[in-house]
Amino acid sequence: MVSADIARGLMELEDPSAPHHDKAPAYKRLLDKIVSSPNSPDLTSNLEAFIDTILGDNLGIVAARPLLGIAVESIKTLPDLDSRITAGTTALHALESRIVSFEEQDAQLREMLADAYIQQEEYIEAAKVLQGIQLESSQRRVSDDHKVGTWIRICRLYLEEDDTTSAESYLNRAKNLRHKVSNPELVLGFQLSEARILDARRKFPEASQAYHSFSFSPVLEEEERTRALSSAITCAVLSPAGPSRSRALAKLYKDERAPQVPEFGILEKMFLDRLLSPEEVSRFSGSLSPHQLAQTSDGSTVLAKAVIEHNLLSVSKLYDNVGVDELANLLGLDADRAENYAARMLEQGRIAGSIDQIDRVIIFEGVEARGERFSADQRRSTAARELRVWDTRVQGVAEELERVASMIQLHRPNLASNHMVH
Fold first, then answer.
1. Does the pTM of the predicted model rise above 0.70?
2. Cα dihedral angle (371, 372, 373, 375), rounded to 10 degrees?
3. How far apart are CA 114 and CA 131, in angstroms?
4. Fewest 10 Å CB contacts: which of 46, 163, 199, 278?
5. Dihedral through CA 354, CA 358, CA 361, CA 364, nearest 10?
């Protein structure tokens, strides 16, 4: 409820007979009186009544703008967040019909409200308030840096609530003006938002690359760079096994900062193509975000799928061939799922080889992947070449054995005669 002295002062200022040239200073003195009592229970109501009055017809736009700006600053100083939000929301509603004349003050109110909502961890409400700021206006000049900064802020607020669709829409707006931005902090904010969206959409190879580039920025604190490097390693680990991931793992493993982060252990094992144990995977999963533990179409988690594919790739480099049942045991799966994983990776060209379904054996070609996908013709050609190499080696062993037998007969005829098989 508006206090009696403030209500009386506002009525006096609204009196048409009051001298017009004295009104602006009188409003300023009344506002100073309102904010001089920050602990008053009537503070919010007094501010709301004051804003309603100065937006009336008693003052001109030129006189009302600075007073409204001072009122906004006064609302920012309210100690109670709920009171700040209530007063700010009321002021926004009062401005709705006259926003064209008070765009600057409307933007200040919205930014103040967004800060209050963020302190209450109401990120969606903060984003919605910021969306109402008029960035394309003929009434005021808005710099490209300010536009991009606002869009990136909205994007990051949506990311706090894992709303990647809304976040990406505002990132795309910022992308159109990115080349005009001169503020290095805005460029970093854009890069981080882009990496987080790629991460949230499970585009882990691209996210890893974005995080790794971000981790080299000299503008960031050492702790932030280390956190970005950890995120880059995590996304690389979660990427589908194959040549692309192998290159990413190699790049991260060679980063001299990598041994400093907790994820280095699993990075090292993956880079060296070692099999991962369930205990190691369990420890690593404790540091993952919910979206990184989400289930895929086959019912397994993103992490479980990445580990299975990695272990399968490791097996292909350890063995020339392996039985389906033995592979299932190594991967911790049933035989059908193990064969399905192998078939999919063979089909996608991430490993080279073939499956003998009659003998239930998976034959790996032993050819180092060069980054390209293997077509069916390429796989048949490679398999034929491997068979010819095998035949040549068998023939070489047989010829060497025959040569040794001939030498024994020549130099040790008695020994050869005693052991001759007839």
1. no
2. -140
3. 10
4. 278
5. -20
